[in-house]
Amino acid sequence: MEQPIRQRLVGAGVILALGIILLTWIYEPVQTRSQAKLIPVAPPMPDVPALVEQERELALKLDQQAAKDRAYQIPEPVEEPEISPKPRLDEKGVPESWSLQMGVFANRDNAKALVQRLQKLGYKAYSRHWDQGGGKNMDGVYVGPMVYRKDLIKLRANLKKKVNIKGVLVRYHP
Question: What residue ranges define each of the domains in the chain, with the CATH number in brackets?
């Protein structure tokens, strides 16, 4: 057979198959398409022995009693003494300590003003001066030093309220 005739026959076969499929779908009886399926009825509950029911009731009573007991108990505050661990020593035998860096200033007068303000509030404030090279001098303002970080963290929260500056914890180097 020639190629064009073969292509026409295959095309006609495909169209015929699609027509049969579509016609059977269109002319399918309405009853089978729209019929609702029934939901099976749940089986009846099995009989529970009386002993299991009694155990359930006893468990409920015990739970209620325990809830009442817990509701009226007020825990007594237990004050534990704070035991401070020994501070770690660095290679020179000096205890490791921490400071709170409150700011770094290029203008020395601003650093001095902040130190004075913190000292008036009763904090141990100091400043450190260093040369960054190229003629740039910086002044850092610190509060501390303290041996224990947790004490400094509490102090940072107080300073944040009073001075509105959130300091950064840094190691103290004498």
Answer: 98-171 (3.30.70.1070)
- 116-158 residue pLDDT tens: 888 888 888 888 887 777 778 888 888 878 888 788 888 888 8
Nearest Cα to Cα of residue 125 among 106, 139, 144, 152: 144
Q: Which residue has the tokens 């947790």?
A: 150
Map tokens 């610190």 to a residue. Answer: 142
**pLDDT tens digits along 23-74:** 887 877 655 555 667 777 877 876 666 667 778 888 888 888 877 766 555 5
Torsion angle of C-alpha atoms 119, 122, 124, 129, degrees rounded to 10: -10
- Is 96:171 a contact under the CB 8 Å cutoff? yes
Q: Would you give the distance in Å from CA 7 to the centre of its chain?
A: 67
Three-class HEC string of 61-101 = HHHHHHHHHHHCCCCCCCCCCCCCCCCCECCCCCECCEEEE
- Residue 141 three-state SS: strand
DSSP H or E run through 130: strand 125-133
